[in-house]
Amino acid sequence: MLAIDVKDLRKEFNVQKNREGVKGAMLDLFRREYTKVRAVKDISFQIPKGEICGYIGENGAGKSTTIKMLTGILVPTSGDIRVNGFVPYQEREKFVRGIGVVFGQRSQLWWDIGVIESFQLLRKVYRVPEAEFKKRLDELVERLQLQDLLNRPVRKLSLGQRMRCELVASLLHNPSIVFLDEPTIGLDIVVKTEIREFLKQMNQRYETTILLTTHDLQDIEALCSRVIMLDDGRIIYDGGLDELKAKWGKGREVHFQFAAPFQLEQLQFLTAGLEVAWSIENEYTAKVWIPLEVNVSDVLSRVVGTTEITDIKIIETNTDDIVREIYKSGSAEESKLHLLGEEKVSNV
After folding, report:
1. Residue 275 sits in the same domain as residue 132
2. Cβ contacts of residue 53 below 8 Å, gap of 6+?
């Protein structure tokens, strides 16, 4: 069963052009000129029920615009959206009962009243029965350790405390789909880890579908089995994290610490015929770069069997490094052109 079904989704904005100088400003008062900006360009994807999917891209790629259309805040220029079987912008009242939303830089809590009062107001908004609300609230408060925060005004909470409360607010009505837009922005590593563990457990227990947009790719590594990458309003990658690393990753690095001093030539001789690159840290430590087409085990078997080693560390290229390299090297543009070529072929 599909939780989210998007076909040929497009969003265009009319942006005012400001002319220069006093004369230009006067002209703008009486006759404004606009330029059309296409933020999301005919994207299509499907997310099954119970999946945690990462939605990533640079600033201005179209991530937040997509989320706002999926949650019914914005109306698409064209295309078709189904979320839980509803068209978000047409069936608002029924639709919102099945979704939860957390915008990391915007609050859904009332600033000057106690946290528990905000939760009670949201219970009425979502029409959650009192008994069901109490059971759900007790579970969430215990899991996220909010007992001491319930009677504090929201304005007196730290950022980490507020984000935990925002999560509870989005889950009080037990939604089947949760949209998280930068939920860990500005948080320290301890709070980030707590939130990631909570989201994983919630997904496993309730099969809650989660669409996560973030610039912190450690969130993606920790939570997502699938990632959709956006560039300039188009999807340039949609698949698993392992496939992303296999497609764009460049290899692995292995660090060796030896029991006795060694020579660089000795290590190069041991791995002759393998396309690897050695570098020396000092007379006891060295590292070797191994491309994806070479098996790490082949390198290790040649080195470990002939020299005494006190420590080995294998470092995989992480998702953060890969995504940064994609945008820096222009691979995103190459992938986009490849996808456009496929679209033209399919339309012939």
Report:
1. no
2. 47, 210, 211, 212, 224, 225, 226, 227, 228
